[in-house]
Amino acid sequence: MKLIHLASFLCGVIFSLGLIEGKMIDPATVLAFLDFAGTWKPTLVFVLADAVMVASIGVVVQKRRTRPWLDKAFYMPTRKKIDRHLIIGSMVFGVGWGMVGLCPGPAVATLLTGNVKTLVFLMALLAGMHGFSLWSRRAG
Amino acid sequence: MTLSDPDFQGLAGGLLIGLSCATYLLLTGRSVGISGMVAGVFAEKRLSPDKAFLLGLVAGPLLWHLVWGVWPPITIHASFLTVAISGLLVGVGTRLGNGCTSGHGVMGMARLSARSLVAVAGFLAMGALAATLSHLLTGSTQP
């Protein structure tokens, strides 16, 4: 284990504590935002807007640097094109997200909390990802 | 505008999430995106920054339990079948769309990525539609 792994681990811990403090680890909070037929609560907006603002400070600093502190280069997403896959994929994700209120981050965070339903969700998530990679390899 | 307790907790939570993303970017040169990290877990055996991040994500609630003596509440009213279908859709959708609420929602928005803006609009719209419809159809999505 190197310093970069320790630093990454700690970033993951901070992210996780943020999900817990902002109640995003609880699908009920997510549904309270997405479900317009229930008691609507804006918590998700506060979490997301604040997270984006703070993260963008990091992006501003990144633009002034040629390399990160603990690695040789920045490995940033390079795709620019807005295509059918992006639109359909995010909509399919949205349907799944709105059905239960779980997305990948909170689902992974609950792994060792003993919750059986989030474990089922994670298994299905991995199956979906695996199925997709088989399909995309065959489709070329 | 008056902020309630959950709003303040939301802001505090968002601050930590943003701090984590900014730090991960500046230290490791990588953009936080949980769905992409999960998809890469089985790609190779070696420990990577992304894998270490996921381990930290898993350790968070354990640390919370250690300090506060309670687990963070997780409330799910949906049936096991619904949860399984939801997981499948999230797995396929995040691969096809190359990201989820962290990669597109937080880092993509912070980078002012047009792709991420489209993705966020897509998953927020469909998320609201699915949540509202399933509430109206089953009446049991919320406590």
Entry keywords:
heterodimer, A: 140 residues, mainly alpha, 2 domains, B: 143 residues, 0% strand
Overview of the structural elements:
The complex is a heterodimer of chains A (140) and B (143). The radius of gyration of chain A is 18 Å and the shape is globular. Chain A has 2 domains: 1-76, no CATH class; 79-140. Chain A is mainly α. Helices cover 68% and strands 0% of the residues of chain A. Chain A is built from 6 helices and no strands. Chain B is mainly α. Chain B has one domain. The two termini of chain B are 27 Å apart.
Task: Provide a short characterization of the protein structure.
Chain A is mainly alpha-helical and 140 residues long.
Q: Which class best fits the helix and strand makeup of chain B? A: mainly alpha
User: Biggest β-sheet of chain A: count, sense, barrel?
Assistant: none
Structural class of chain A: mainly alpha
Radius of gyration of chain B: 17 Å
Number of helices of chain B: 6
